[in-house]
Amino acid sequence: MTGNLKLDMKQLKEFLEFFNSVNEKCFFACIVNNYSRPLDDVEKACTDNCAVKMITVNQRLMNLYITNRRDKDNSS
């Protein structure tokens, strides 16, 4: 495997792990009726809000990490 392909595979793996984590956390937090296939309006709203919050938090954490890393690299 070339270096770029390894990096691409690592990034894909990290994305899928994050996606699965969001999916699982929001499912357990929001889905209360496992006996009905369609989501009701409350479950839909909950899963939408949950996913948006998780993605927003992840973006903020990544921005903080990048900023801290950049500051650390500039101070060296």
Automatic annotation (TrEMBL):
Q: How does it assemble?
A: Heterohexamer.
How this chain sits in the membrane, per its record, is:
Peripheral membrane protein
Q: Which GO terms describe its molecular function?
A: metal ion binding
Single GO biological process annotation from the record: protein transport
Alphabetically sorted, this entry's keywords are: Chaperone, Disulfide bond, Membrane, Metal-binding, Mitochondrion, Mitochondrion inner membrane, Protein transport, Translocation, Transport, Zinc
Q: What is the lineage of its organism?
A: Eukaryota, Metazoa, Ecdysozoa, Arthropoda, Hexapoda
Give the family this protein belongs to, as stated in its UniProt record: Belongs to the small Tim family.
Tim10-like domain boundaries: 10-65
**Pfam families, sorted:** zf-Tim10_DDP
Q: Which organism is it from?
A: Agrilus planipennis (Emerald ash borer)
> What is this protein's record name?
Mitochondrial import inner membrane translocase subunit
Function (record text): Mitochondrial intermembrane chaperone that participates in the import and insertion of some multi-pass transmembrane proteins into the mitochondrial inner membrane. Also required for the transfer of beta-barrel precursors from the TOM complex to the sorting and assembly machinery (SAM complex) of the outer membrane. Acts as a chaperone-like protein that protects the hydrophobic precursors from aggregation and guide them through the mitochondrial intermembrane space.
